[in-house]
Automatic annotation (TrEMBL):
It holds the Pfam family ATP_bind_3. This is tRNA(Ile)-lysidine synthase. The keyword tRNA processing applies. One of its GO terms (molecular function) is ATP binding. It catalyses: cytidine(34) in tRNA(Ile2) + L-lysine + ATP = lysidine(34) in tRNA(Ile2) + AMP + diphosphate + H(+). It is an enzyme of class 6 (ligase). It comes from Sphingomicrobium lutaoense.
Length: 324
């Protein structure tokens, strides 16, 4: 670090390349900053790569007594660097959660971030997910039997509401690199005790990987990237095949399914659900429906009736239930 407060130029150049792939250079950028090492590194790098074009936000979940003071600490760091900063309070109408805390906090955090970004006129907001986050997410999903889409783990970008895109420009950066970058500036780092709490799945997995010596997050991140490319290729193939195999049939669709790989079948059926304005079914439910169709049985799913018609499968609105 040149002056103890700015990241070195090589780190900024590397970050700028990663960011430019995801966010147009002229677009103002929102930054989700909790005060941990990862998000402080994001703050420093983004402010150096896009001076005057970033705005920071901290979500105070109110789950720990220290959270309000930690949010104010982040604000002070931002204001010292003339970076606009907002603090958002989590709203728990029924009180803070006592179970499934991580998922509940994530859901409310993203909802608040989307609302804030829209109000600020921002089209992109960045989080500090890094290579270890990617590795841990992929392995947790693997342990739960996720399919290809789930195993792509954390996406570099995804919609966050209707007008905002969530981006993760640090997915290929190791945690240690980010922490070293912040420590070199002398900034105070907030260490959330939940990250080491063995009652949380991610913390237990992180410790198990460390003890087993499988801590090369970059390799896991590479695998997730390869899986993401395969996911994109299969989606492209399904979209290409769809108009040649799916035709209108009255109020429904007729799908000439023969000879297609099961994964392509699954994707085309999901596209059919979307075409008929129905929400996509859960993966296991759709898998059971496909099994039934191969056996000549029909299945009601998501308000649609999937049935066999000659050599094809038919997807159409389910008839109304008869009154008793």
């Amino acid at each position: 670090m040149a002056d103890g407060s700015l990241p070195d130029e090589s780190a900024v150049r590397r970050f700028a390349v990663d960011l430019d792939r995801l966010v147009p250079g002229t677009a103002p950028l929102g930054l989700a900053v909790s005060g941990g090492a990862d998000s402080l590194a994001l703050l420093l790098l983004a402010a150096a790569a896009r001076p005057g074009a970033v705005r920071a936000v901290t979500v105070d979940h109110g789950l720990r007594r220290e959270s309000a003071e930690e949010a104010r600490q982040v604000r002070s760091i931002c204001l010292d660097r003339e970076i606009p900063h907002s603090i958002l309070k989590a709203d728990w109408p029924e009180g803070p959660p006592i179970s499934n805390i991580e998922a509940s906090a994530r859901k409310i955090r993203y909802a608040r971030l989307a609302h804030w970004a829209t109000g600020e006129g921002l089209t992109h907001i960045a989080t500090a997910h890094h290579a270890e986050d990617q590795a841990e997410t992929m392995l947790m999903r693997l342990a739960r039997g996720a399919g290809l889409s789930g195993l792509t783990a954390i996406r570099e970008q995804r919609p966050l509401g209707e007008k905002v895109t969530l981006v993760r420009p640090l997915l290929h950066w190791p945690r240690a690199t980010l922490r070293a970058l912040v420590e070199a500036t002398g900034l105070p780092i907030i260490d959330d005790p939940m990250n080491k709490d063995p009652s949380h799945d991610r913390a237990r997995l992180r410790e198990a990987l460390r003890e087993a010596g499988f801590g090369d997050a970059a390799k896991f991140a590479e695998s997730a990237a390869h899986l993401a490319e395969a996911e994109q290729a299969l989606g492209w193939a399904a979209r290409l095949i769809y108009p040649h195999r799916v035709k209108e049939d009255g109020d429904g669709l007729l799908f000439a399914h023969r000879g297609l790989p099961r994964e392509i079948l699954r994707r085309i059926l999901l596209m059919a659900f979307d075409s008929l304005h129905r929400s996509p079914p859960r993966g296991p439910d759709l898998a059971r429906a496909i099994d039934g169709l191969f056996e000549g049985r029909q299945a009601a799913l998501g308000g649609l009736l999937l049935s066999v018609k000659g050599e094809n499968w038919r997807i159409a609105p389910a008839p109304p239930r008869r009154a008793l």
